[in-house]
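Final report, results section. Input specification for complex C-07:
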Amino acid sequence: MERKNPVFTAFIYACAILLAAVILAPLVWLFVMSISPAADLAAKPLRWWPQSADFSRYAQLLSTTENSAGAAFTASLRNSLEVAGMATLAAILLAVPAGWAVSRTPSVGWSLSMVIATYMLPPVALSVPLYMGLSYLGLLNNVFGLALIYLTILAPFTTWLMKSGFDAIPREIEAAAMIDGAGLFQTWRILSLPLAAPVVATSALFAVLLAWDEFFYALLFTSDQRAKTLTVAIADLAGGRVSDYGLIATAGVLAALPPVLIGLVMQRALISGLTSGGVKG
Amino acid sequence: MSGTWMTTRAWLLMLPLLVVMVAVIGWPLVDTVGLSFTDAKLVGTAGNFVGIDNYTKMLTSSNFTRTLTTTTWFAVVSVAAEMVIGVLAALLLNQEFRGRSVLRGLMILPWALPTVVNATLWRLIYNPEYGALNAALTQLHVIDAYRSWLGEPGTALAALIVADCWKNFPLVALIALAALQAVPRDITAAALVDGAGPFARFRFVILPYLAGPLMVALVLRTIEAFKVFDIIWVMTRGGPANSTRSLSILVYQEAFSFQRAGSGASLALIVTLLVTVLAVAYAALVKKTAGSAA
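Structure output:
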């Protein structure tokens, strides 16, 4: 392939180190801030590496003592988990039959195209009626209400992924089962769903990531610990009068851990999902 | 099985999805259109019909034109930078060197980092008193005194763009890398034998393979950038002096801060229309690119 020119090789390694530094430096700094004593972070010149690692902020945020910073944080963590879990489950339950239907009956595909085209809509275009509707139903500041709204983002995406997943399963297999007398739901149970299980898992992970990341609707539709999600809690911390920047960084690390771990573990599946044309919304 | 039954069954299976989509997207959109012709407030009265007043008021306000300019700047500069840096990173990651697979793995990190955490992280880095950027630049003697990067209208938008690029260029890189790996080796080898230099090889051999996937990435990133809210809200709330206010933030302020649901709705629809026009124009472009690359 390429000539093994030493200058070229050195150039490649220099670029690789630069790229790694660009990616890692902000992330490492976030972690260093979270374990540096407050005095180190306020020092001038800034102390880049703490003299002693201080993990007390993690304990502080994860404690559930009433009226502490920890209580607000753990409540938002629980809300994020609940909302992401419920919205993902609902999105998958809607997406599996719909994705299968579009995959096997292309004549109804235009309806899915319409659903996917809603991706272009800025959330602000829906936010006022959604706010009024949730208020009317008494679902403002409520995890169920927020999970329902998250379907606007999650359901089109999961359906589209499921449709591509079912496209990859030959319909002849299903036809053979049906000729042998299996009904539709039996065919799904013994054939289609086990075969599509990896796609269901990938779709669910994408949905969890999208829900975990969501901020705009959560900012609008939640107001206190009963429903505020992590993203809103962190924005509150960042914009509030917290004097210890390390605490903000710690909250960031904790909120980033689940999606980053999912990203690293599921790298291959996520990248193939991304590069097949789908991109996180 | 008859075709009619197949179609009916397909509709029945899609019904739950379609019902939910109509409830959470279809109805709100139609309602937004209705609201946009009224002077409704967010809470209380339904408002009176005012015709196209909201639209004319919004389109002629200096707030709107200024915000449109800011948003366009943000979208054009950040997406262009993401595409260029992303492709360069992909070309690098397509070379053979030790540690390549680790570096590829790292690329997923900024993408996986929640947008709000990314915004918070950069807000801390840009902090005027204790931020890492000020500390680093002072210790390297690039600047004499600490600066308020997010607090000065001259630097705030650029600082936001850097933060946005850092999070999003790895995605472009991963998409471009997947496309690069689809380039058949014998074609690049043949071009090399024929004496094509590195730029000629990139332009005539590699770029046609990249064009399709990159166009898709360009479309999606541009739409995202035009709708931008989260990163700006967390880092600057549109300030200082509204110098980083995006269209989505303007709608938020109009509809929720000032509780003017009617004019907020009209503004939201103007934004929707802009994004739709962009997307349709792009879609045509994608079709053309895909056609010529095939």
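The two ends of chain A are 38 Å apart (CA to CA). Residues 277-281 of chain A have pLDDT under 50 and may be disordered. This concludes the modelling results for the funded period.
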